Amino acid sequence: MTFEIGFVMAVVFIMLICLVREIARPDFIVFTALAVLLLSGVLAPEDALRGFANEGMLTVALLFIIAGAIKQSGMLNQVVTKALGSGKGPKKSLFQMMLPIAGLSAFLNNTPIVVMFTPVVRKWCKERNISPSKFLIPLSYAAIFGGTLTLIGTSTNLVIHGFMLEQGLEGFSMFQLAIVGLPASILAILFMITIGYKLLPNRKTSEESFDESSKEYLAEAVVEGNSPLVGKTIEEAGLRSLNGLYLIELIRNGERIVPVPSYHKIKTNDRLIFTGLLSTIVDLQNIKGLRVETGTNLVLEDLQNGTSSLVEAVVSHQSSLMNQTVKEIKFRSKYDAGIVAVHRNDERINSKVGDIKLKPGDTLLLLVNKDFVNKWSNTSDFYIVSPLEEPEIMDSKKSLIAGVTMVVMILLAAFNVLSMFEAAVLASLTLFLTKTITFVGAKKYIQFDVLILIACAIGIGIALEQTGTAAFIAQHFVELTAGAGIIGAILVVYFLTSVFTEIITNNAAAVLMFPISLAMATQLGVDPVPFFVTIAIAASASFATPIGYQTNLIVYGPGGYRFSDYLKIGIPLNLLYMVVAVGIVNAVWF
């Protein structure tokens, strides 16, 4: 082993540790690793930047725009509600939900699909007295199943496709992955409506938990007529620095001020709503001129009216909020919203809101004004999982254009009239020229953090290949599986990719495994394509943890799940996918 190989392995190992420990955003961690390789001279600038010109990465960027146009068209709004049916047979409704979700996610980004339908499914379940925890994990899994069916089902497939083109290979055809993905998806859906349904927990959602425990964290105080606080700002009155309570709303003559600015002046009869540790309520009672309302059953419904509303949001993997306290983030001023409570691991965090250090998967109950959803619905910091009262819907003509454009793009790529990238360019151009989507509108749908992560990860993959690190690792894997032949090598590639996907991002897992599997195929003297198919399926088939795949994270808090719920259902599904994928790859390609 050369010094260069050892150095690259050390950089990649440290990067993996940082990703697992979530010390920063994944895109920043991967960018830092790439920067180290560049500055150390391991990678030339042109190689470090190759990921930013990779055809797969650029295709992902264009598909974000196309999926955005479909989303705002309103075409999908009624799909799942109709598919779910009456709910008289829950297993039948589960099957009817999973099929269209898998079909949609085969052609659209699965993250917005799960974000869009989580509140729809929760509302449907609530109306029929069915626990949403029986449906939300299947919603996420169905979106993952669909991603394994087509070239554009997930960004991971396109990244591997782009790598293959760089190696002078043909790349995946539109439905090549379905050779493995379709049988695996069918068996997985059958598993979910039989054994999986029994294993799914019957729990309260985060929405129900917040509501039921509201008396444990909401308090109200009224400013009396002779109060020395009258005329002072919130800051001057010391209401920003209470030992366990957090001011979320001020009510004056029926008007609600959300959030409450520090400079806002207090008046007589102002009603102040606090959230946090009610054990510290004595702090309020000790403030002269402030009367704490005791014996009143303040509930969440009391916090909202026409100008303010409650919204649930889930902290994402790419969030800039990670590992910072609410106070450090200055959440109130940054997002113009107040955090009422935080839900983590099936329970509310019982501490002062300002002192809570946020983590991916945390569900935030936010008190917001009417502009919040429109302003922040596409942020990468969190996913809004509350129903939107007025979804953004374009006119019927533009909706038709968006749908037809999508279908034509798929057909052009499927029949090899154009490459996937060229078809996506044509589709995007059509949407812009017909004004179906504007440049400003498109920008909010492009997930730049995902693109940066992919581009930087590709640079690290190039370093693994050029320095001989991939060949060095591959040699040891080939020796390890020498007695098991080709099927043993495929099994190792699947297993390693699956493990990486569960602990880091799926795109990073695929990029790291690509050069290693290419080197393994070369050393074995076989076609590398089946190895790449294996990586694509394994990188997407992430079921065993809520942190392995973004759709699992989205439903984690809203479904009231525990980490163990994913292990209980996900490990059998992971094994099912592994057996089907390895078996079919071995039978079809070797």
Automatic annotation (TrEMBL):
PANTHER family linked to this entry: BASIC AMINO ACID ANTIPORTER YFCC-RELATED
Species per Swiss-Prot/TrEMBL record: Thalassorhabdus alkalitolerans
Keyword Membrane on entry: yes
Protein name: SLC13 family permease
UniProt xrefs under PROSITE patterns: NA_SULFATE, RCK_C
One Pfam assignment: CitMHS
Localization, UniProt: Membrane
Keyword Transmembrane in annotation: yes
Domain (RCK C-terminal) ranges: 205-290, 298-382
Membrane-crossing segments per the record: 5-22, 28-44, 56-74, 94-118, 139-163, 175-197, 400-433, 445-464, 476-497, 503-522, 529-549, 569-589
Keywords: Membrane, Repeat, Transmembrane, Transmembrane helix, Transport
Record membrane topology: Multi-pass membrane protein
